[in-house]
Amino acid sequence: MLTDAVSKAVLVSAPEGLFVFDREGHIVFVNSQFEDLFGYAPGELLGQSFEVLLPDLFREERERYSAAAAPGVTTLRVGLERKGYRKDCAEVLFQVSLSSVDDQDRPLECCIVRKIAVHEQPDQSLVALNSHFRQMVENSHDILTIRDADCRVRYTSPSMLHVMGYKQEEMIGSTGFELIHPEDRSNVENALNEFWKKPGARDSIEYRAKHANGTWVSLEVVAYNLLDHPAIQGVVINGRDISKRKQAEAGKDQLIAELQQTLTNVKTLTGVLPICAACKKIQEGDEWRQIEVYIRDRSQVEFSHTICPECTTLWYPDLQGS
Question: Are 21 and 123 in contact (CB under 8 A)?
Answer without folding.
Answer: no
